[in-house]
Amino acid sequence: DGAELDHDTDPTAADSDEDGLADGREIEVGTNATLADTDGDSLADGAEVAGETEGGVAIPDADPLRMDLYVQVSVSNGTDPYSEAERAELRGTWADLPVDNPDGSTGVELHLDQRELNETHVIEEAGDYGRLKERYGADSLGNRSGVYRHLLLLEIDRDYAGRAAAPGTFSVVGGGYTRSFDGLRYRVFVAVHELLHNVVGRLDEDNRCPSEFDGTNAQFHTCEGWLSYDRPDEARFLPDGLAEELERDGLLPADSHR
Fold first, then answer.
1. What is the pTM of this model?
2. E strands within 83-206?
3. N or C: which end of the chain has fewer CB within 10 A?
């Protein structure tokens, strides 16, 4: 009990923070025994150590001391899937984000599971995004819902290259945007932008950009960096204020949505 008091844990409970990991085991692993999600990625410490959530969802290579982001990419018929090089670009970009982790590292570990959708979807009309979000957002991933984000890679014939719930699970990225900017493929850049919307949501007031965005849009975009509308070769960085916001709030839960 004396040791438990030293660690601010509850001597009357085997698992003070109810994260599925006993207090003694938390001390061994290095996680915070009074905080269910030490690294702030919305995955309980116990699940990350076990490699499986309470609902039975496999979360391979999860680390309770480093943020993990799990994304299922569903590819529409007629759209080229992300190549291995593009997937490496995505993982590398998230790994390079200047966000501090409890283990002393920086960045977010992105875990991608790419699958064929076996259906054809094209966003052409104003209501198409909403219909796809209704069908493929929220609970569309079965027991993965609330754990994985769902990104649809498809053709978009509108005045945007991607959209996302902010915060939330669902996003779409135009698969036909294959041009590269300073070595980074545009559809990779768009995926980073949209997934950031998923995990950050509404920005702190100091990080918003009302000078460049009208109305509600200003609440979700920065004046520079990944969440701006600057050219991709000029926007491949996370502003300090947004990095601090991510460190403080962590990755917003996958089951939250606007």
1. 0.92
2. 109-116, 122-123, 149-156, 162-164, 170-174, 180-181, 184-185
3. N
